Amino acid sequence: MGYRAFYCCYKTNETLSAEEACEMDLSVAADRILELLQGDEDFFGLIDDHNTTLQFLRNGDTIWMEIPIPDKQGSYGKYIPLSEVSALVADLPTQIDLNDFSEMQFQPW
């Protein structure tokens, strides 16, 4: 099994909750993410086989990327340019590892 995807695009009214996340190949996810992150507050998330989530929220021409850590009541995150999001998704390893995102800062909820 690979990743499961969830998303919300307000402009196209396409939504899929995290509870209903569907399997999605990373190459498809890399293509779909820009289609779904069209406007502010649109989001896209991927859940790996270990139920670790990597999610993206659009804010203008930047993306807030984060890995929620419910046990710590917060998320590790950082801003990335919109232009980098597709390549980042396409190159994800088979499992999301916080160590691969060392520049992320912890943000309590």
Topology:
Blueprint (H helix, E strand, L loop, with lengths): L2 E7 L4 E3 L5 E3 L1 H11 L6 E5 L5 E7 L2 E8 L4 E8 L3 H6 L14 E4 L1
Antiparallel strand pairs: 1-2, 1-3, 1-4, 4-5, 5-6, 6-7, 7-8
What does this structure look like?
There is one protein chain. The protein has 109 residues and is of the alpha+beta class. It has one domain (3-108). Helices cover 16% and strands 41% of the residues. The chain has helices at residues 26-36, 85-90; strands at 3-9, 14-16, 22-24, 43-47, 53-59, 62-69, 74-81, 105-108. The longest helix is centred in the N-terminal third of the chain and has 11 residues, at 26-36. The protein is globular and about 35 Å long. The termini are far apart. The model has no long low-confidence stretch (mean pLDDT 95).
Tag the structure with descriptive keywords:
109 residues; alpha+beta; 2 helices; globular
Q: Give the CA-CA distance, first to last residue.
A: 30 Å
Helix-strand string:
EEEHEEEEHE
Shape: globular
Strand proportion, as a percent range, falls in: 35-45%
Q: Please state the oligomeric state of the protein chains shown.
A: single chain
Largest sheet data: 8 strands, antiparallel
Q: Which class do the helix and strand fractions yield? A: alpha+beta
Percent range of helical residues = 10-25%
Concise summary:
With 109 residues, the protein is an alpha+beta fold. Helix content is 16%, strand content 41%.
